[in-house]
Amino acid sequence: MLPFCRLGRFPWCCCPWTRTRTRRVRGLRGPLVTLAVLAAALRVGPVRADSVLSFVYTPAPRAQIAIWIEDAKGQFLATVALTEAVAFRGIGNRPGASEMNSGYRWPYGRREGVLPIWAHRRASAPGAKLFPRVIYQSRVEGFASRTASDQSPDAYYCLQFDSSKAEQDQLDAVSCATPFSSDKGCYLTTKDLSAHYAEPYEAQKGQGIRQPMPLNSVYPPRMDVKRCGADQGCFDTADVDRFVTDTRAVMPEIDAITIATPPGDLQQRVLFSVPKDWPSGAYAAFIEVNVEGDYNARWNKDTYPTASTPVDDWDQYTQMYGYAYRGQPSLVWKVTFNLPGSGQADVAASTADPVGRSSWDVWSSDYGKLEPISFDASDPHAISNTVAHSGASRLAASAMGQRFALSSLSAAMPTKPPVGTGEAGTNSQGGVGGSTAGSGAAGAAGAAVIGSAAGTGGADGSPGAPAVSPVGPVEDLLLQPDGNRLYTHTWVRLRMRAAWSELPLHAYEVRVATEPISDDDSFIRNGRQAKTAAQDPEGLSLPTAVPAGNWIEAGVGDLFAETHYYIAVRATDQLNRHGPIKVAEITTTTRQFATVTPCFVASVAYGSPLANEVGALRRVRDRYLLPQTFGRAWVAEYYRVGAHAAAWIRPHSALRTALRAMLTPLVRLAHALD
Fold first, then answer.
1. Per-residue confidence (pLDDT) for residue 558, from 0 to 100
2. Where would a tag sit more exposed on the chain, N or C end, judged by fewer CB atoms within 10 A?
3. Per-residue pLDDT at 647 exceeds 90
4. Which residues contact 542 (CB under 8 A, 6 or more apart)?
5. Taking a C-beta distance cutoff of 8 angstroms, is the pair 467, 568 a contact?
6. Residue 553 contacts by C-beta under 8 Å, 6 or more apart in sequence?
7. Which range has the worst mean pLDDT, 122-131, 156-165, 234-243, 540-549?
């Protein structure tokens, strides 16, 4: 007897006691249907319960990340998460040569090497489309200087024509105080190709060529700009109007899978709801990580210096300012796993070592393929846990030595009664597919738990009536300008009461928009993930272990002056179920300028008197030194010699680096006291 008979499956087609029924089917139709059903059953496998995949990793600061899933045959299936600089800011597809220098919020130069493995894998999937390629309107691709009327205001990017502020070691410390205008570019056309349009490219030092570019790109263009016309004194092309719609036409899911650049050294957990039509069986998950300017002995500014040839194709600004951004190429980690079928246990898998890397030959025909890497600790060029400045440290190792972990959780799992806090919430709105990112850790950086719930339970202090929805809304969402008048134009304070949930919360997703947010669609499409209120803003993570009804407060940053914002919040549980959206509105203030009391040496070390580290030291001075006689005397002596010391140190990059190392313990103490 065949196994199907013992399992009670398909008794009418293959079990001995049903042969009579089979014989009664006349002609070819019966056998063909029988074979088709059997073949389909063998191909699809057991019915799979709805699953949620959880991806866990701890990135280095400023890491650009892509997470995606492929089937057992290596066919690309879905992007799980893509960091904002690539997905929203368009750093992979913008005007400027691919080898152009970089720096703080550097506006030009397409970063072909940012996440090439993901980009080419996605583009190779059946039915996948490419994005139109963006080039300068009229400049040479190697020029940062304006050669024609092509600029419009750019609130996000800037160009520091101060070499001391555009160096790599100043990347986090410099604010763009001066308004900047950039060329948003236009699409490359077949007419351009016929005219031999190309970019300067130096595959080998001193041997530059003019490299023709393909008509399309594997990366999306900017989605954060709107066209500014000549009647407004600026000169954007009509192509800028199409950036958003063309991007969504190629990647309809891009809004849902975009995540903010995560805080460095803080564990991240990204959820992905598996599509119901994915069969159980073998799959592979990948994470690609790139950190710009991640130098080591093999990849550094000497082995890949600032491009200089062809001589006439690079202007003085690309030679004098910024830094040679190319360090170690992007690295990829891979985890194989099986989606569980009905009645099967959930899976868990992890890995420590990267499976491969990209290269820097961006115009090679096989660019974007995984290349092998060495794990030989005796090799100074190897990528290994034991090699200093190893690219593998872009993902921190867990206590078990793992750097990328995956687990699945069945959405059919039993749930406990909801933890109520008084009032019954409204039904949760259906969530948009894709991923939700957050650390899920209580007390995360940039957030604080304050006070306790008042009047949210029963008269005897017991929880109120449970609500129907598995995830409730946040309550009493309030916004107000930041208390520091120097930052009220770019920072606001958010205050809300924690939501209740049947299961532990995964994250509070906070999104910021300049257009109204009224439902799940506008929450995803109009909003971008909120950032921390800091000079080097990162993705905002709110604590999730706060009891329902208690207050949560945090700073939201990376905003623009005199702009009306809609800030929306929803809670998400560990099964990727979303609660209702709450929205509040606020208009940022006019930018305030003030004279900052000097902190000469620290300002030189960190590149700006407004640097976060300098501010912490200044507040310690004001709170702990100036009120004391000895402290005032010390500060007076510091003022006497500090300016001279700063002037001597300022021209020397090595001295500034050493000074920051010396000040690091004091800065940490200042932050603790602060």
1. 92
2. N
3. no
4. 438, 444, 447, 507, 508, 510, 552, 554
5. no
6. 447, 448, 449, 450, 493, 494, 495
7. 156-165
Which residue type does 608 have? S
Reported as a pLDDT band with limits 50, 70 and 90, residue 11 is: very low
Nearest to 135 by CA among 190, 188, 196, 209: 188
Q: What is the pLDDT of residue 178?
A: 64
Is residue 4 scored above 60 in pLDDT? no
Q: Is the pLDDT of residue 341 over 70?
A: yes
Angle among Cα 56, 62, 64 to the nearest 5 degrees reads: 65
Beta bridge partners of 56: 269, 405
* Best CA proximity match to 586, nearest among 467, 451, 490: 490
Cβ atoms of 176 and 105 closer than 8 Å: yes
CA nearest 566: which of 623, 614, 516, 518?
A: 516
Are the CB atoms for 617 and 510 separated by under 8 Å? no
Cα distance between residue 279 and residue 139, in whole Å: 51
Strands 64-71 and 76-83 come out as antiparallel
For the chain, list the domains and their CATH numbers. 3-44 (no CATH), 51-405 (no CATH), 440-452+470-587 (2.60.40.10), 600-673 (no CATH)
**Residue-averaged pLDDT of the chain:** 80
Q: How many Å apart are CA 258 and CA 251, to the nearest integer? A: 11
pTM value surpassing 0.85: no
Check residue 669 and give its pLDDT: 86
Q: 471 φ, ψ to 5°? A: -135, 125
Output the CA–CA distances (angstroms, integers) from residue 527 to 58, 477, 538, 600, 631, in the order listed: 25, 17, 16, 40, 48
Q: Which two tokens stand for residue 333?
A: 């980690």
Taking the C-alpha atoms of residue 357 and residue 330, their distance in angstroms, rounded to an integer, is: 6
Average pLDDT score over residue span 148-155 = 89
Q: What is the pLDDT of residues 242-281, one digit of tens each?
A: 999 999 999 999 999 999 999 999 999 999 999 999 999 9
- pLDDT above 90 for 186: yes
Q: What is the C-alpha separation between 653 and 659, in angstroms, rounded?
A: 10
Q: Quick check: 415 pLDDT over 70?
A: no
Q: How far, rounded to the nearest angstrom, does the alpha carbon of residue 3 sit from its chain's CA centroid?
A: 49
Distance CA 20, CA 97 (A): 74
3-state secondary structure of 555: strand
310 cis-preceded (ω within 30 degrees of 0):
yes
Written in H, E and C, the secondary structure of 421-486 is CCCCCCCCCCCCCCEEEECCCCCCCCEEEECCCCCCCCCCCCCCCCCCCCECCCEEEEEEECCCCC
Q: Is the pLDDT of residue 114 over 70?
A: yes
3-class DSSP assignment, residue 617: helix
Give the three-class secondary structure for 368: coil
DSSP state of 612: H
> How many angstroms separate the CA atoms of 477 and 226, rounded?
29
- Rounded distance, CA 5 to CA 27, Å? 25
Residue 536: the pLDDT is: 78
